[in-house]
Design a protein that fits this description.
ATP binding; globular; Alpha-Beta Plaits; Rossmann fold; nucleotide-binding; 9-stranded mixed beta sheet; 614 residues; 4Fe4S_Fe_S_CS
Length: 614
């Protein structure tokens, strides 16, 4: 409802709201209630006593927001004209989505934004799985004639008319691939044949390396194998609309490149392709246009106008959308330039490295279930971050676990250079059982009480930016996979340590959270003169965080070898050469951009063997 020329939006996070543990402070402080002239917030006994805010009576004073002990209430005033662009709302005081992305025939449309701003909701509406209620939560859902009228004169009206008339067939790759084994049973080969309507499933499966698991039961697949199977199954459907929700999750860098090429190839004449992706290098490579979703995660989301891919990603990183006159954040996200080659490397190889060696290792040989990992001699130096890259199954996690002391090498040894070496280790996979049965607040406080101190940089970077303040009262074992990951990353980085070993810290995180984690890693190692080893598949984050890069090569599942750490430019060049792709730095933001295969820049860089051009 409006207040003057403003649209009042009141949202309650009912997962955080705990009326049995409070005294209804939100109701008690409301000036409308206290005046006796009406009721703006009341307890709804039909929903176990949880409060309801009546937006038409609310005056927007936000006293209830401040009074709520669980930070469960959000009230915002938006431009009144947005009400005409409301697309969907999840009930009274629920999340509200404004506008929709515009599918384009023959093009890949990317969606970029924070988790909780409505990307998956928008995809479900465009897939025909969720009927938009135009923000109406009372009085019955609108008919399709009314919905089509709302989008009159736009490309969305044409799209929805085709969808309603059954002229569009949709193939949708869902976000959470781990749910698949609960719904499907059988061998990979049989499931792909069942999905195949174009006669290409087995060929595509071989291109992404799934032929090795054709006879395996779907319940025995890893997350990466499930992801590739779903992507192949969707691309094998005879559809007009192909939708991919976070297709790079669980995949290594090489697999992400293969996946991106396949998805880009689906944008043939007459077909619509839409992708939600947090890996900006992949999003840049695969998309022709992007929409940015902004707002308050969990409260509301607004879809921006379409931007060209380069412009859209750049304005997102700069934190200001010129077409909407909206500022997303106070400061831009900029990438550092590599140190000039003429300058000698620091003793540890990193730009900020000190002469203090923290931990070292001799030539290692680790044997594990038929897999063998070897390495040369090496060391980690204070103040540097070493990025670790390589395919899945090549031994990156084995190496990290060996440095952490969880695995003992058959040959060689890991030895500290500092007394009472302190190691903080974030494993690749996080399960509720791996963390104590406690609240998020208790876990973070045990890691370092300073992380909960209001105004501290640890609190800002790891609690506020990752929205863990909304989870403090929740018990760890009730969290989702993504929430668990954020808690584990924050706890690992908060600990006072000499060495930080972080295995895939960006998994499940959105772009803002990934950059926040990378920034926190850099600040920790430089402030504490600690060392960090970061296993990462996101090229942008690998480039952003690393002082040196360590490649792991070999044959996945059989043998791996840890190469010596190299300067960023040399390491990235070799990594990209192995992947068969070329990268250039964006002139405006400094971010790495994948060149389109066969483009002028791609051909020129390949000819010069300059796979990583800065």
């Amino acid at each position: 409802m409006q207040g003057g020329l403003r649209l009042r939006l009141a949202v309650i996070d009912y997962d955080s709201c705990k009326p049995k543990k409070c005294s209804y402070e939100c109701i008690a402080v409301c000036p409308v209630n206290k005046s006796g002239r009406g009721v703006a917030i009341d307890a709804d006994m039909a929903s176990r006593g949880k409060p309801v805010i009546y937006e038409d009576a609310c005056i927007g004073c936000a006293l209830c927001v401040k009074a709520c002990p669980f930070d469960a209430i959000y009230i915002v005033n938006l431009p009144m004209e947005l009400e005409e662009e409301a697309v969907h709302r999840y009930g009274v005081n629920g999340f509200k989505l404004f506008r929709l992305p515009i599918p384009r025939e023959g093009q890949v449309v990317g969606l970029l934004g924070r988790n909780g701003t409505g990307k998956t909701t928008a995809l479900r509406i465009l897939a025909g799985e969720l009927k938009p209620n135009l923000g109406r939560v009372e009085g019955g859902e609108p008919e399709w004639d009314e919905i089509l009228k709302r989008f009159r004169g736009s490309e969305l009206q044409t799209y929805f008319r085709k969808l309603v008339d059954g002229k569009l067939r949709v193939a949708h790759k869902i976000q959470y691939v781990e749910l698949v084994p609960r719904r499907l049973k059988g061998r990979v080969r049989d499931l792909l044949k069942r999905a195949d309507e174009r006669g290409v499933a087995l060929e595509l499966a071989e291109q992404v390396g799934l032929d090795k698991v054709f006879d395996r039961d779907v319940r025995q697949l890893s997350g990466g194998e499930l992801q590739k199977m779903l992507i192949v199954a969707v691309l094998s459907r005879d559809a007009n609309v192909y939708i991919f929700d976070e297709p790079s999750s669980y995949l290594d860098i090489r697999e992400r490149m293969r996946m991106a090429r396949l998805i880009a190839g689906a944008a043939r004449p007459g077909a619509y392709v839409m992708v939600v992706e947090h890996d900006l290098a992949v999003l840049d490579y695969v998309s022709d246009l992007v929409h940015i979703l902004y707002g308050e995660p969990g409260a509301y989301g607004i879809v921006s106008k379409p931007y060209s891919t380069r412009e859209g990603i750049n304005v997102f990183l700069q934190g200001y959308l010129p077409a909407e006159n909206i500022r997303l954040r106070k400061e831009p996200i900029l990438f550092r330039k590599p140190a000039p080659e003429a300058q000698p490397a620091a003793p540890g190889g990193g730009r900020q490295a000190s002469r203090r060696r923290i931990v070292g290792w001799t030539g290692l040989r680790v044997a594990l279930d038929g897999f063998t990992l070897t390495s040369g001699e090496g060391a980690l130096y204070g103040g540097e971050v070493i990025g670790v890259a390589g395919p899945n199954g090549i031994g990156k996690t084995t190496f990290v676990r060996t440095l952490a002391g969880a695995l003992k090498p058959v040959e060689g040894a890991v030895y500290p250079y500092v007394e009472d070496l302190r190691v903080s280790y974030k494993p690749q996979y996080i399960s509720p059982e791996s963390l104590p049965d406690a609240t998020v607040e208790q876990v973070l406080k045990a890691a370092n009480p300073a992380i909960l101190a209001p105004g501290s940089w640890l609190n800002l970077e790891l609690v506020k930016r990752m929205r863990l303040d909304k989870l403090l009262e929740r018990r760890v074992r009730t969290l989702s996979g993504g929430e668990l990951q954020k808690v584990a990353v924050a706890a690992a980085l908060a600990r006072e340590a000499d060495v930080y070993l972080l295995d895939e810290p960006s998994a499940y995180l959105d772009v803002e959270e990934r950059v926040g984690v990378a920034r926190a890693i850099r600040r920790i190692v430089e402030t504490r003169e600690a060392a960090a080893l970061v296993v990462e598949h996101d090229l942008m984050i690998l480039d952003y965080v690393s002082d040196r890069i360590m490649l792991v090569t070999g044959e996945p599942g059989v043998r791996g070898h840890v190469d010596d750490p190299r300067p960023v430019k040399e390491g990235m060049n070799l990594l990209l050469q192995n992947l068969g792709v070329t990268v250039r730095k964006d002139e405006q933001t400094g971010r790495p951009r994948l060149n389109k295969e066969g483009s002028y820049l791609d051909r020129m860089q390949r000819a010069r063997k300059l796979y990583y051009a800065v």
